[in-house]
Every structure is written in structure tokens, then in C-alpha cells.
């Protein structure tokens, strides 16, 4: 997200200097790619996990500064809204039992955070979209007191020259009519309704294009199988409403520029690539800077001296273009490396679901990247883009396009084609059999039962409504049941059907049991 201090005031001279420094960064990156300057391994994985804070009424708790003070751990940071925090999990090898250790570490970290939240009088929940958000939670006063967020809010609204306009038409609940959300906001805070998990995978430069293309091809399947963002501001919308909400909120284009075809900053992309340089060059060519902050480093001079440049201007610019699969340049212990940051996945429902989604992504991406005839050589880029929106809107009921198969449901595509590829890909990554089988079994059973977090939420709210609850009451009751299941760490496909077990009516928040497991 940019490591340098951010100046809230920018002049024309700042913009010119920033443009020149960004081009120098591109030139330096091209030289480094040609010279083979990048880390050769072992392959590392990382994870960012966003969390919501809730009060005893299951409403958003605007308390992230107090909670972070109680946690007192730099791995946890404030997110855009004051009801959000983020956990940055330390990178580790992908091979062996590291994924199992990651699961244990993540549960321990969340237990620590949950205890700290309780000390502040609130609780944690891991869900793609908090159903109890109300329009007043998107008021500017609830932006976290972080200078970057304040400036981004100002710059995005200034570029638009108008308020944020949201317009999302939902998917009907069983027997109902399609619901539609149309509203305006005077800040980018609607984006704080989007709570995600972002896996990172270190990739060698020569393998980057194949892995990124594979990630793009997988995006629609990922959101369909992992959907967990079903309700916003009381409406039943898409199965993964994060996708349209984030795109519409972080949009710097006026209606006129949208109609003229100007590219959005939340972007799927426009083509398959042959090098990571393609993506960084597009970012510089198509998008004006939002945070034009420069450093004193001359990246080309640093290279000439035999050292590694930070490429700070390029990295800062890259952080203000929200590709669904973002390219990342970074430096660790003086050695540069490249990563893919996958941004399509929602948070939750449980830790094991999060690890299963991550393992499936890593394995299927590796499997597709190593195929003799790449899927992207047989698939139009716009078909992959269609899959993203179809999967986000309809979840398991979507029809996705896949070469040699044609139109197919996500669960069938995973079970017949992608799951065997994911097993092969994780074996080739060196992941242990125990880890691979644990996590991919969750994906298999989720596809067999066709139950995602979003479908569980929708079914539960529908059942509670049929029993006489109004929408706010049904959402609150559903969320209490969700919270109890989340803390058990039982994957969502095992959760009882709506009405099979009544959630506790207690107003207290359940505590996190770190011994919960799935066998």
C-alpha cells in the first residue's frame, strides 16, 4: 500500500516529477527482468485477512483504534472503516506442512484479537459483507484516522466531481422478487462493506505471465465457489456483492468518462499477458496518479551501483489500481521478488474455509500454468471476465464458459476438471499430502453439497422470514448463527440447514474456541 510518508498537498511540479520517477522505475524493472535479478525461491505464500468488529447487537462497532491498542501487534492494522481491522500473516514457504501451521497460527492470532476485542467491549466476525451495515455507517466521520484513507477519499471524489452512486440489482430469494440497491454516498466508505482475504504467492519472473493468466481464468470459479457476501443495507443482492460494490465505490470516472470507455481503477484487465511488465506499463499508461509522492532514490543509479532499488513510486502507484489479480514487486532482505495478490476472495466463513479457498487457488493456478496447451490460448479474455461477474452474481447457479467443455456450472467444473488440476499443482508445489487432502476435501464437499457462505446466509434469512421475522430481525438472527458456526471452525458445507438448529438468543458474543477442528 506504499511505505513512504504521504503528503496531502500536490502541485503540478509534484505530478511531473512523479511521472518521471515512475518511468525511471519502469526502466529499472525492465533491466532487472532482463538481468535475472530476482529471488529464485523457495516459493513463498502470504495472506491478508480483513475482519469486522461488531457490538452485542451484531451491529458494526466503530472501535478499531481501541481494539488495535488492546491487540498491540503490528501484524494487525486499521482498514478503511472504523469497524474493520486487517491481519497480515507473515510469509512462509508453500511446501511441506506450512499450510497446516498457517491454519494453527491464524486461529491463534484470531483468538488473540478476539480476546482484545472483548476487552474493548466488542467482537470479531469474518464475513465477506456485514449484513447489519446501515447507510449511516458510510458517513465520512467513520473513515479510519489514517492519512492514506483520508487522501484517497478526497482524491477519488475530486476526480469524480460528484458523489458515489451505487446501483446493484440482486438475485431473488426463493419465491421472491429481485431486490435493488440504489443510493448515493459522499465518501468512499461503502468500500468498507467489502471484507476480503487476499492470498499472495511469490512467482519467478519467467513463470509470472502463465500464473497471472491462470489466475484470471480462475477468478469466476473462485468467487462462485467461495461466495460469502449476500446482503448489503438490508437487500439480498449478489452472492458475492463485494465485486460490484467495490467497483462502483472506487471509481474515479464521471458518467461521461465511463460512457467513453475510460478504464476503471478496480479492473479485471483487458488481455492475456506475456510479462509482468505488461501490467505495470498499463498501470502507468492508463491511470493518473492519486498519491504522487516521490522519494530521493534514483532507481537506475541504484542498479548501476549493484544494489536493489525500492521502485517506491511504481509500487505506490500500483497500490492505487485495484486489479482483481494485482502484480506486486517487493524487496525482502535486499532481494527483489514478484508476487500475485489475488483479490477476489471474501473473508470467511471459517479459518479452514479460508485455507481451503487459498489452497485451491494456489493449486489450480499452478496446474493451469503448467498445462501443455494453456487454457488462455483457447479462451477469449472477455469470457474470463464474463465468468467473474456471472460467478459473483449467481454463485453455484452461474453458468461459466470453459474451453473444451463449453457452458457449465461451477461445481461441475471444479469436480470434473479443476480439482484434479489443483491436486497436481499442490503436489508440484511440494505441499504435504496431509495439507493438500485436508483443504481440497473441503472444496470437494462444498461443491458436492453446493453450499457456500452466501447460499447458507440466503437460505437462513429466507427460512426466518417464512417463520415471520422481518428483514432486520432475520439478518440479525442469521448473523448470530453464523458467528457461532464461524467460531467452531467447521467448514460451511457442514453447517446445519436453516431451522435445523436455532441460534442462541443471548446478547453476548460467543468466544473463539481455538480447539475447533475439521477432521
Structural commentary:
By secondary structure, this protein is an alpha+beta fold. It has a domain at 38-268 and 324-449: Creatine Kinase, Chain A, domain 2 (2-Layer Sandwich), CATH 3.30.590.20. It is built from 16 helices and 15 strands. It has helices spanning 12-35, 64-71, 98-119, 147-160, 205-226, 242-249, 255-259, 276-286, 299-304, 312-318, 351-369, 381-394, 410-429, 433-449, 453-466, 471-488; strands spanning 44-54, 76-78, 84-93, 123-125, 164-169, 180-185, 197-202, 231-232, 235-236, 266-267, 322-323, 325-332, 335-342, 400-402, 406-408. Strands 1, 2, 3, 4, 7, 12 and 13 form a seven-stranded antiparallel β-sheet that branches. A two-stranded antiparallel sheet has the order 5-6. Strands 8-9 form a two-stranded antiparallel sheet. Helix 5 crosses helix 11 (351-369). It is globular. Mean pLDDT is 93; it is low at 500-507 and 512-519.
Count of alpha/pi helices = 16
Our Rg estimate from Cα atoms comes to 22 Å
Mean pLDDT: 93
Q: Sketch the major β-sheet.
A: 7 strands, antiparallel
What is the strand content? 5-15%
The chain-level structural class is alpha+beta
